[in-house]
Amino acid sequence: MNRHLAFEWLHNFRDLGGYRTEDGSAVRWGRLYRSDSLGKLQGEDWDRFLGLGVRTVIDLRYPWEIAGKGRVPEHTSLVYHNLSIEHRPYDQASLGADVETGPFLADRFLEVAHDGVEELRAALRVIAAPDSGPLVFHCASGKDRTGLLAALVLILLGVPEDVVIEDFTLTGLATDRLIADWRDANPGREITWPGYGRAPADIMRLFLAGLTERHGSVHTYARELLGADERLVDSLRAGLLERADEPVAAP
User: Which CATH class is domain 14-88+114-242?
Assistant: First the structure.
């Protein structure tokens, strides 16, 4: 199944619907999306985006990224939140070829999970709000910061970790276009890191294992640091899941 929605300027816009949970429920289609930067929306892409009925956008980028690259266009139908979950900027494209992709990015994810507690807590509350959907969250490429938040939401909904890891790797289908975007935006520079734009499974696998090692489980981390208590999880499930006895149909 191809979860990527076709846009000209967006390369990694995906629907998180259809994933089955451990109790047999499933994530509703057309309710929760993940994406690369919505600052690229224009023309027919903008019309298609509005046609999805999105009510809420969570932009996970730094304010300086937004100042340089733009944000989703303002519209009366949209509520916009900038929640910059990463606090230690670094330049992936300039990393050395000896930097191992999985362990390096898993460590960066763990930093974000602990540095960005306040922003991640706020993002979960926005996603759990009963009137927030359809909702899309995004960063620059829709891979790392977006992948971290997607993993937390899916796990809190009860989606098995192996499925969460598989969802993370789907960015690989957009890697070539993301690299082309970077080259267009950085004339005269070269990408020195072979891992740039790539999403091997071991990044997410090592990250989730790291959270479990530090906190006992991903659920414990989310409950104790992000305030994802039973009430919030119930709200997430109420808004985003189809019951086990309901048919799950793709849009």
Answer: alpha beta
